[in-house]
Amino acid sequence: MTDPARTPTSPARFGLTEARSNEHLRDAGWWEGRGPTAGAEPVLVALSRSPDPDLALRGVDRLRDALGDRWPELDGALRDGAVLRGRLLAVLGSSTALADFLVANPDRWADLADPEPVDPAAFTPALVGAVEGLTGAEAVRALRSAYRALLCRVAAEDLAHVVEPEQPYVTYDDVAGLLSDLAEAALRAALDVAGRQVARADECTLAVIAMGKCGARELNYVSDVDVVFVGEGDLAVATRLASTLMQVAGQACFEVDAALRPEGKAGALVRTLDGHASYYRRWARTWEFQALLKARPVAGDAELGRRYLEVVRPMVWTAAEREDFVADVQAMRRRVEDHVPAGLTDRELKLGRGGLRDVEFAVQLLQLVHGRGDEELRITSTTQALAVLGRGGYVGRADAADFGRAYRFLRTLEHRLQLQRLLRTHLFPADDDTNGLRWLARAAGLQAEGGLSEGQVLLAEFRKRANQVRRLHEKLFYRPLLQAVANVPTEALRLTTSQAAERLAALGYAAPDGGLKHIEALTRGVSRRARIQTALLPVLLDLFAASPDPDGGLLAYRRVSEALAETPWYLRLLRDEGTVVDRLAALLGTSKLVPDLLVRAPEVLRLLADTDALVGVDPMTIGNPLRATVSRYRDLDRAVTAARSLRRQELLRVACADLLGLVPLRTVCVSLSEVWVAVLQAALDAVVRSAGTPVASIAVIGMGRLGGRELGYGSDADVVFVCEPVAGASDAEAARYASTVVERVRRMLSAPSQDPPLQVDADLRPEGRQGPLVRTLESYRAYYAQWSELWEAQALLRARFIAGDAGLGARFVEMVEPIRYPGRGLDLAAVREIRRIKARVEAERLPRGADPSTHTKLGRGGLADVEWTVQLLQLQHAHEVPGLRTPSTVRGLRAATEAGLVSPDDAAALREAWTTATRARNAVVLVRGKAADQLPTAGRDLAAVAGAMGHEDPGGFLDAYRRTTRRARAVVERVFYGS
Known about the structure:
Its EC number is 2.7.7.89, 2.7.7.42. The protein is mainly α. The longest helix is centred in the first third of the chain and has 28 residues, at 136-163.
């Protein structure tokens, strides 16, 4: 079968796909037999360029029916006139609503044939003339018809070049201006009608002040028109006059919204000039001054409107000096974000990410700050303000031009979407809406190219522009600050240091002057490095502002940048990888540990661009590369240095992944534990290699949290050392040799360093600090058989081999099995003793002044509470419950639950408390850069810890922590203390 689209004589070659296309074309006289009629080819070609040729042809058919005997006149005009062809077919293929209007008013097609551009000066005479002498419903009908006719004319000129490329292209700015002028004329006509309908209208004076898009002369095809009313004389009459104006205009043309007036909808509809002034001086919030940027008198008494601007405009340019400016700006940003519907963030042209509000908000904020000293910025239009910002040096010229184009593109798409049915919409078609994308692309004048369809071209362009706009806030919001602190004044750039400081303060920086010094240091000079920093800092400043500690983040960034100044790839990575910038800012604005490590392990920065690499592989294998690398060094110092370096990298990698929320707690704890194990193993191997012929084998037994693979960032490594003589050596020789090796390992690992300390704690050995550092296996056996105490059996619950001779380690673990898992459990006396020891620890070891409700280790419901409870159950029941024979607290708790020793609810409370306390303890180390068991209870440290824990509200985090640990403490009282 022949494809109709490939048949030269088929209507399909003109983009027509509907079954009735032939019939419609024949009825119009444009088709006969197998081809176009004489003179119809230009019409069909123009039809094919319409955004929707089938829709346009249906509109033609409806219009032909409406015209009846007058159709030949329109037919001839279409055949002969490119102006009419372009305008009419573009409108019919773009807007069903305007097609309905033309069908209802078929003689209006002649308005579109006028070759002269539409004259906005004629709008007011046309609309006021249409309602002359009319009131009520008759006036509304007349105004609606006249308004819709002019709207159709504007749309026709806007769209004509899509269908007839030779027709003049009308820019977005011109179209928005025409729509605003048309709305202004409609308000004047509505006021004219209201003046006839309201009694005693001559006893008052009313000025209509346009706000928002109408005030800025950047109105959409379908928008509410925001206004404020100012009155003199009888305000009751003025209020009726304003209310009637809103009613007439709303019924005929568009909704008139007066919600931007003082006190919003709760306030008086009309106020005197003094009333407005009093309100703005005493009560207005920052967003109201932002709204006043767009204020423009458009109807009513022009003199009163002029005086209104003279009163309110000076107040606009002092808004940035208000004490609550920072809080108001932050609140405005949150409100904008909150208005984005769920799931539509990437498609919402107005409020979504990279949407129109991002541009408008950034430009308006720049105007509020810098318009005080630069009167050129005191303009209403977003695009014009962008141009002035570029010319004045507040932003780069290229940036201003790029984002101006992006804004115009997005507004054009918005116009096209609204024209379709004359409904207020801002929703870009979904990715799988092929027809919607194709129609919108053609309506916007985009064509298929490079093997991509029109819809694909549109989608690519939309994403490109949205991404540009997404960066608009960072670029425009901070560029003036950078130019000021870098001391690069120009004739058009007159920013003072105080203005730059105000900008930092507006972002939430506590020490703007210090921030200025950091920025100046980073951007000083004309080097390539300074130029890249100048491009990066606008983004980073905004990101730091969203972090718990903006000042600390900026300081840390300066430290890292100065430390890595000679690293060739550092700034390139930040410039080219947006993900790295986002993640680095979050890390530096939250943690003191990360920048301390980063200056000595910069290679981890590269991992921020690759989530999989940052998360890493199986944490159980994390130490393999470290051991393999260190084993290649014969020199002891170099081996230990390599071990420290690799440990630093892994510690930083885990910390970054943890803070960014990419890994669960278990992965963090296992990773930190296995890194410690690998360092110990590598250091032990290196020392043994350097010590000559060994006379003993040595095994390292992990204890405590290391044994349970539950280490945190600030944990020491609890271990015991065991040795065994080689053939021909005595126990005494073996012990001396092993002690020498172990002491050397401990000394090298604990040597002063800028890294987090590597403390090897052997205090859990027999006799504690009074006992020998290393014993032979037989010495351990003899000691545990005769002298071991209950606390030592409890400590052995978490013992596991971690380094050295695996066979010896296995024999040690086998030897201690009956000690830590006593054959008959514990008698009542032993249980009482454990409880007594625990109570003594609570009373004596909690630091003086510590808050037991927020001490993560020894506080109520903290780590010690949960761990001692699980360990008591292990000592009592592990002889009969094999699952309890584990060094892991979490696994032990799970086994106790499965055995019915703890109820599921109690187990859940204990597990949640242990997990929460472990995460909080880790977060404190990450935030402060040093180990601490006490949670901060105020300030930025608390905010940072709460943020690291996933809480936006610091106070809410503390409440949740206390609530969780209270529940756990209640379980401990029942299960551990038996109360």
